[in-house]
Amino acid sequence: MNLDQIGKEGNLGYVVFISAVAALGGFLFGYDTAVISGTITMVASQFELDSVLQGWYVSSALIGSIGGVLVAGYISDLIGRKKAMLISSVFFFVSAVGCALATDMLQLVLFRICGGIGIGMISIISPMYISEIAFAKYRGAMVTLYQLAITVGFLAAYLVNFELLDFSDSVGQLEGSQWNKLLVEEVWRGMLGMEAFPALLFLLMVFLLPESPRWLFFRGDENKSTMVLGKIYSSPAKIQEEVHEMKLSLGEADKGNWRLLLRPNFLKAILIGAAVAILGQFMGVNAVLYYGPTIFEQSGMSGGDALFYQVFVGGVNVLTTILALYIIDKVGRKKLVYFGVTGMILTLLLISGYFVKASEWNIPSYVLLILFLAYVFFTAISISAVIFVLLSEMYPTKIRGMAMSIAGFSLWTGTFIVGQLTPWLLEVLSPQGTFVLFAVMCFPYMYIIWKLVPETTGKTLEEIERFWEQ
């Protein structure tokens, strides 16, 4: 199916629009995840945190994320994808305002957990929603819009951190004690609080979205499902084809039954998805995103230079994800993983070598930046672009919400462990040992993708479902 054919059968512009709105949740995910990197040193100094408590500050939001993913599938299956996205946007907004105004470390952690719930929920619901409304041939690109929004959120957080720190260093004092506290004396509050603006925008934009036609059909409302499909597809024949596919995939007695998860064919898909989700967190990407400025500082840079370099990391992340968006449905999911993970292994080993020989060989700090940028390129074009696409499309509709919650739980559990352990690993194993460990963890990930995961490129969700049922 080419673009001309899609133009005759479907409304591509409308699908791109609603996918982009749903992907705004990814922006909040990215901002909330990355903004923490620029606040660690300041918060640790103000509240006198040791390395263990620093890890807790970083990973506290991940506790909320784990809770969020555990309920996201159930809530989205119960009340719909759209209402679940609205709930997540409220969590983001409350977290941003609460962190900016927190009076002590306990409040700060609690509001970070609140934001984490929003992250966990949206990490499941947005890609699932997009996969359920997108054309099969371009589903990879549409879901990758969500990953692109995450990387833009990362970059926005890095830029906000850098600009606010520069502003606080140069402006002196502001009129009004509260503004002075937010933007000068304790600028980390402003960094965390800026998220309130995109959170409010997302809350308003979600009202423009239709409900997922597959969820509506799953809940027995075929008429509303057909109406939504009528906005997506202009061809009556195509609408009837989609309805027929959904009828084939949904058994009347099987709706939302947890026992379905224990069917051998479905259980296999769930375990594979969970393994891919958790292993991907032990390959270094979150250490770079959370602790990039800290790692740069350990190489001898100033705090300002470290944040500036992190902006470059965010920029490469965004540009590479744009490239992935264009090629993921042409090259295929698995080939991108093979290429990217191979590059990740090489760059992780080179980063380790930098920390071993930098002082002895007088290697300039920009070499570390180049290696980090190369690593981010290989990560963004492979596992980061592919993971949410795979998880959103590999499960049957009747268990998709519950199965994605399980995979999301695995993903955020791995992220929590990495966030908690990275300061300790950097301290005990040193940076060089830590990056060697990350390189080693790439091998089991590659094996699972190679041997156990089917290529899903170009297939409808119902065709993928039939693969697991064989």
UniProtKB/TrEMBL annotation:
UniProt KW DNA damage keyword: no
MF term (GO), any: transmembrane transporter activity
Annotated ranges, domain Major facilitator superfamily (MFS) profile: 18-457
The keyword Nucleus is annotated on this UniProt entry: no
PROSITE patterns: MFS, SUGAR_TRANSPORT_1
Superkingdom field: Bacteria
Subcellular locations according to the entry: Membrane
Gene Ontology CC: membrane
Gene3D superfamilies the UniProt entry points to: MFS general substrate transporter like domains
Membrane-spanning segments: 12-31, 51-72, 84-103, 109-130, 142-160, 187-209, 269-292, 307-329, 336-356, 368-391, 403-426, 432-450
Keywords: Membrane, Transmembrane, Transmembrane helix, Transport
Topology relative to the membrane: Multi-pass membrane protein
Database matches in InterPro entries: MFS_dom (IPR020846), MFS_sugar_transport-like (IPR005828), MFS_trans_sf (IPR036259), Myo-inositol_Transporter (IPR050814), Sugar/inositol_transpt (IPR003663), Sugar_transporter_CS (IPR005829)
Family: Belongs to the major facilitator superfamily. Sugar transporter (TC 2.A.1.1) family.
PANTHER family given in the database record: PROTON MYO-INOSITOL COTRANSPORTER
NCBIfam families for this protein: SP
Protein name as catalogued: Sugar porter family MFS transporter
Organism for this UniProt entry: Flagellimonas olearia
